[in-house]
TrEMBL record:
PucR C-terminal helix-turn-helix domain boundaries: 457-515
Family matches, as InterPro entries: CdaR-like_regulators, PucR_C-HTH_dom, PucR_C-HTH_sf, PucR_dom
Protein's name according to its UniProt entry: Purine catabolism regulator
Transmembrane segments: none
Span of domain Purine catabolism PurC-like: 11-130
Length: 532
């Protein structure tokens, strides 16, 4: 175990110049940490201290004024000073009971020098010790880091890092990975004792394990005896960094192995495997996994060249890390300039879509995407299926979503197949017939008029239909006066017929407007990240 590096009031009482002292109050605070020693003779000091200072005083500031003395002591307590040492005789002859009671109430050590002592020599002695201790702490920290780095080159499991931390500090170590039960080193410790101590802020410390910008786990230490020291916190931080490196390496290796399983997963996407075969496969990979349905999500990159320049393994690892936190288990398949993710749902079916939306937002906002290390890409989410053997249906609908997004560009307003509604029908019709010819049969007069006169009739028609024929609301949304709107509606009646607002014809025209938007190329595609 390392040197403690916690210098307490109790330790100071064992040093030179403290042979003739008396502790008159705050015995329970003798384990308070001391970071510095100050000689203070003024009574207003609440802005002069940083905390953890041991104060030396002759009492000249308050002399026999009990009210000033109490105010001085109260300020020390509020500033988290470590204790107060008073030289008895010249300015202070006795300590009032009220002062002793206040110090005892806050476990604040009150120490009396019974003989005259040289304050300067005390500060020189203790400051020299603290500075030497600080240099030793840095040396020990560097030595610990080097040992830890060597271990990272050879260890196979992160529990070796946890054991190393426990052996070095002597504290109870608690490791919590997202979605899993906490692990304890040593294991035989009574959990009730750990839980009780974890409620005491000064006896416990935690450090999150960050992977790819997301909190993946948490490392904690719990002291069974003394308070957690500054050195303990530094060691905890170095260990958390080492753990993050080890876990990231493991995840990276695991992602590489997953890439080798592409062929079987492609067969799953094509509907070649039965439910029994799929569950056998899942059991081999994750025995405790009991999925409640699933779906396919496709990330299609702008070009094959951009795809090849991207660290695909890192991108898949980022994707997996984010969506695992949302309750999904993922398998990935590389296909041309796309990555296809089979998403297995581990939580309630009703919440899958909201959780997926949250994950997509975090992916878009991640540093890896925002700093342009990821080229522009479409993201399409297929239909949710409850039977895993029907994953081919979700795959086809995810692919259709990407196709519609690519066609609509900025006009697409969702990553989910089930939100595209009318565009799904339009896409199907377009696949098997000349959709453009049908659209022109209804809308060509309006389109040609706008091209010739820049008349904005198509925009007017679309909003007029969306407002259910309300002229007042249409004028408001178009930011035009009523007279201008009336003129445009008269022109539409002339081009489309007086009956264009009759139910059946109106429905057909609304459908054709959607189809026209689908067929019209967009200047800017709806990428998750747009080129600027």
């Amino acid at each position: 175990m390392h040197e403690n590096f916690q210098f307490t009031v109790s330790d100071i009482l064992k040093r030179r110049h403290f042979e003739h002292v008396q502790v008159v109050a705050g015995y329970e605070g003798l384990n308070r940490t001391v970071k510095w020693v100050h000689i203070v003779e003024v009574t207003k000091i609440n802005k002069l201290l940083n905390g953890k200072e041991l104060i030396l005083s002759t009492g000249v500031g308050w002399k026999e004024n009990e009210s000033l003395f109490r105010s001085f002591l109260q300020q020390l307590i509020e500033c988290d000073a470590s204790g107060l040492c008073i030289e008895m005789g010249t300015y202070t002859s006795s300590i009032p009971q009220e002062i002793i009671d206040l110090a005892n109430e806050h476990h604040f050590p009150l120490i009396l020098f019974l003989k005259e002592v040289p304050f300067v020599e005390i500060t020189q002695d203790i400051h020299a010790y603290l500075i030497n201790q600080h240099y030793q702490m840095i040396s020990n920290l560097e030595s610990y880091s080097q040992q830890l780095n060597k271990k990272l080159l050879s260890i196979e499991h992160y529990d070796e890092i946890l054991k190393f931390l426990h052996n070095y500090l002597g504290h109870q170590v608690v490791f919590r990975m997202n979605g899993k039960e906490a692990e304890f080193v040593p294991e035989h410790v009574e959990l009730s004792a750990v839980d009780q101590l974890s409620q005491q802020p000064k006896k416990t410390a935690s450090q999150p394990i960050q992977l790819l910008g997301n909190e993946y786990a948490e490392l904690s230490i719990v002291s069974l005896e003394k308070e957690i020291s500054e050195f303990d916190l530094l060691i905890l931080d170095r260990t958390a960094t080492a753990l993050a490196q080890h876990l990231l390496r493991d995840l990276y290796v695991e992602e590489k192995k997953r890439a080798q399983e592409n062929e079987w997963l492609k067969g799953w996407l094509e509907g070649e495997h039965s439910n029994e075969a799929i569950y056998d496969y899942l059991t081999d990979h994750e025995p405790e996994l009991k999925p409640k349905g699933g779906f396919v999500s496709i990330c299609k990159f702008k070009s094959l060249r951009q795809y090849s320049n991207l660290d695909i393994t890192y991108f898949k690892l980022l994707f997996r890390t984010i969506f695992e936190q949302q309750g999904f288990y993922t398998f990935s398949v590389d296909f041309r300039s796309s990555v296809i993710f089979i998403m297995l749902n581990k939580r309630g079916i009703k919440t899958w879509k909201n959780r997926m939306k949250t994950g997509i937002q975090r992916l878009i906002e991640s540093d890896f995407v925002n700093k342009k290390r990821v080229p522009c890409f479409f993201l399409g989410v297929g239909k949710f299926v409850e039977k895993l053997s029907h994953m081919d249906k979700s795959y086809r609908t995810a692919f259709e979503t990407i196709k519609i997004q690519h066609q609509l560009g900025k006009k697409a307003n969702s990553h989910f197949y089930e939100d595209l509604h009318m565009y799904r029908i339009i896409s199907l019709i377009h696949k098997y017939s000349d959709l453009n010819e049908v659209v022109m049969e209804y809308l060509e007069p309006v389109i040609q008029y706008d091209k010739k006169y820049n008349g904005k009739l198509m925009e007017t028609l679309k909003i007029y239909l969306a407002c259910n024929g309300s002229k007042k609301e249409t004028a408001k949304r178009l930011f035009v006066v009523r007279q201008t709107l009336y003129h445009r509606i008269q022109k539409l009646e002339k081009l489309l017929g007086d009956d264009f607002m009759n139910p059946e014809k109106r429905l057909a025209i609304e459908f054709m407007i959607k189809a026209y938007e689908y067929l019209t190329p967009s200047d800017e595609n709806q990428y998750v990240q747009n080129d600027k």
